[in-house]
Amino acid sequence: MSAVVTVIAEWMARQRWYQAKGAEPALSVVASLDGGAPGVRVTVFLLLDEAPAEPLLYQVPVVFRPEQAPDAQGALIGEVDGRFLYDGPHDAAYVQLLVRTIADGGRLEGDEARAVGEPAVDPGTPTASHVFSGEQSNTSIVVDVDGGPLPHVIAKVFRLIHHGENPDVTLQSGISAAGSDRVPRSFGVLTGSWPDPGRADGIAVGHLAAVQEFLPGSEDAWRVALRAAAAGEDFSERARALGEAVAEVHETLAAVFPTVETGPADVDEALAVMRSRLRTATAEVPQLEAYRDAIEAVYDRAAGARWPDLQRIHGDLHLGQVLWSDRRGWIVIDFEGEPLRTMAERTRPDVALRDVAGMLRSFDYVAGSLGQDGGSDAAGVGGWAAAGRASFSGGYSARSGVDLVENRDVLDAFELDKAVYETLYEARNRPAWLTIPLAAVERLVASA
């Protein structure tokens, strides 16, 4: 391993978007792309990490500078042979290169790889930028621009990359192109190609980055809901509007992308995944054993129910994937789905009720997280969550025409599956939070 890759590996292990937490990255360079300004080299590394059981491919843009930048300590990756390496999204040289390559339909060439900009609208020329903090799987950069239709845009850099169209690009662009303002407007994407010996032609093609509308003054729905629940504020009107917004997004997706009738094999496959997850979770979370038969009974009822058609969905919907804008109301973002699933899985038509179940569980988590502080009224926040779920469901049904009561057997199965997954996650990562999904499991099997 070269000195540069060694330094990058040490730095990667500390990043929030690095998936193999606690492991030492085992990196090799698959390909690289080059660019930059005079005296500054920009290299976009595509690095294969073989530390996890299933190898993952990461995109790591690096800016090489001859001198240390005094105001960019947090972005410093390390030093190799007198050159200082900086994380590209934090560096103006990379941001300028990325945005203008997309806007101009330009190309980046490199070692066994290339990338091509695919512009939709010229966003303007970057003048300043800063990185969003707290993201788990990608890196988003707020970019100030001159000469464009808006004063700010967001450049999203996909850290985990795959062959195939990223749904965060295709779904969001499709919804926006259909005239919906329930998603940010798309300005263009950067599509790359790189060697992949696992493919018949030896080449993989996928999205590396995208530029889209920035919504100033917006706030994610998790924080909005958490603040309302903590204050005991009535959230019914906003929850109903959120249900209507999600239904509108589903409606647009069904109009823009193909839908498929759900067949017996689709139902069998979905339930097999749920039952497999239940077996894994029960083995690690003994408290689930008391509910196992009741959970299986819910899955059995779902097997005999009529399932809605399959369509493209969000895939990882919760309150953190929605923004509130005083000007536009609820805006749905981050259509990437679960980043660790294959692109083929994430682009497959699914049941829209999966998104509904994810949002219902998110209301529970607002109440449950407040309960962790010991100072909140458990009954009060529990009632707040129940009211939020009911209002969201009412809004969704009213806009979509899908009666969630009539679809309860299928919806309960998806919501239980989500809660079972949560028990596994909390047992592994936040044992003190395990009571949140366990309470949901108890409630769902009791009401089924």
Keywords:
448 residues; alpha+beta; Aminoglycoside 3'-phosphotransferase, Chain: A, domain 2; 12-stranded antiparallel beta sheet; 3-stranded antiparallel beta sheet; 15 strands; ATP-binding; Aminoglycoside_PTrfase; glycogen biosynthesis; ATP binding
Structure description:
GO terms for molecular function: ATP binding; kinase activity. InterPro entries: Aminoglycoside_PTrfase, Kinase-like_dom_sf, Mak_N_cap. This is Maltokinase. This protein is an alpha+beta fold and 448 residues long. The chain folds into two domains: 3-213, no CATH class; 219-447, Aminoglycoside 3'-phosphotransferase, Chain: A, domain 2. It is 40% helix and 23% strand. The chain has twelve helices and 15 strands. It has helices at residues 3-12, 92-103, 167-177, 221-231, 236-256, 264-284, 292-303, 343-346, 353-371, 378-400, 408-429, 435-447; strands at 27-35, 41-49, 56-65, 76-80, 83-87, 107-111, 114-119, 125-131, 138-146, 152-158, 186-195, 203-213, 219-220, 322-325, 329-332. The strands form two sheets. A twelve-stranded antiparallel beta sheet has the order 4-5-3-2-1-6-7-11-12-10-9-8, with helices on both faces. It has a three-stranded antiparallel beta sheet with strand order 13-14-15. Strand 11 and strand 12 (203-213) form a beta hairpin. Helix 6 packs antiparallel against helix 7, helix 6 runs parallel beside helix 11 (408-429) and helix 9 (353-371) runs antiparallel to helix 10 (378-400). The protein is globular. The mean pLDDT is 93.
